[in-house]
């Protein structure tokens, strides 16, 4: 029976049966597989219409880029998020194994950045809190075991700061990817359900009353969680993530779909005690959803209070509810995140607690249970009347599996379909190792069609707008080409070359000063602030 995964995290999966649909749940970042009686599966999306709109009513800002010209030619630059998830849990992507020397840890990470640049991506989403741990020296969490191989032991330097510096050096956005409530990974690789197997400074050792074991000890995949129903636990989890926002120059805070654990067999999540104390007169389902909603709302508010320019987004399971359950749901027959994991993803968009949402549409076009071609317009409609940007999770890891995924053109067709929906503002690919593997040449195929030139991330007009002044530009003929040099005050710079009547984006650089050497022609340069608001061109 063909399968359909999601954001993989670990090699094992937890089976469960929901009526006629079976969903396999991996771990952090996981592979979710939806099965049906005769099914298969699917994934992703980029896209975008006119994402170049700016605050044109602000007289003190630079001119609308649509009106900007270079030697009479209009500027054209793709505006879409092109990202990749880099998973640390169980060393799926990076580091290749725990306990590597610091130099090798660094070289491997730089290799992922090189790949992102080669593919003309503009953002990386790095797993910095897989399971109640941290990839930075934290007051709230122990060092992640996936770096040194020892729970609570760091690599001897500030890994987060180094990663951000190197990522920004390549003018890529750095989104810190957190799993809020997971506290351990299943044994034997992780601590499993045993609090005493956690790092000595793990917070659940000090507060065992915050811990929940699910699935139960002795069940495959058993692990520890922070109890979402205990307000003090939720506050602590928020504080632990906000620490990274306060201390580091990250571009975004990113969650995937792990709030309440995906259900395992017929086991009930053991939170009766917290429900009796904090239930607030609600049904248990509504109470659980409210707990997750509070986390999402509070994190959103707190991020913007600390650093208004930091983006906040979530990558949920691709089905909110089926239309057989709720007329507002999608034409699907799979697991429902609203009912099974208490994630009211549609509400988060409607309330605009998020800057972006990345539904994991890890099913192929035509999949009976969850058809990519039907889910895509459903999500486009969800965001249509909001400011929330829609990116789509892309299942690169599925390429080469039996059925539709044995066709290297599946992702290519999905990306083409995305372009038909103006609400789609980008793509996020799972995961880094699959981009590098390029199974069946699928990555090469869609990259040539959709990522052949650089792209600027889409504007979020509600973020701070500090569009810089145009740079000072000089050009000089060098051999058979032209060297362009500029000085400015932007966070980054963009280089355009006139060809075929338009000035097309050919390169970006970090910082306001820079240079670029290319073939003979006419060039212009713009400056951008950290929210990607763009100056007038100079050349």
TrEMBL record:
Domain Glycosyl hydrolase-like per the UniProt entry, residue ranges: 80-402
The keyword Translocase is annotated on this UniProt entry: no
Membrane-spanning residues: 12-35
Keyword Lipoprotein listed: yes
InterPro entries: Divisome_Glycosyl_Hydrolase, GH, GHL10
Keyword vocabulary terms for this entry: Lipoprotein, Membrane, Signal, Transmembrane, Transmembrane helix
PANTHER family per the UniProt record, alphabetical: GLYCOSYL HYDROLASE DIGH
Name the UniProt record assigns to this protein: Lipoprotein
Organism in which the protein naturally occurs: Dactylosporangium matsuzakiense
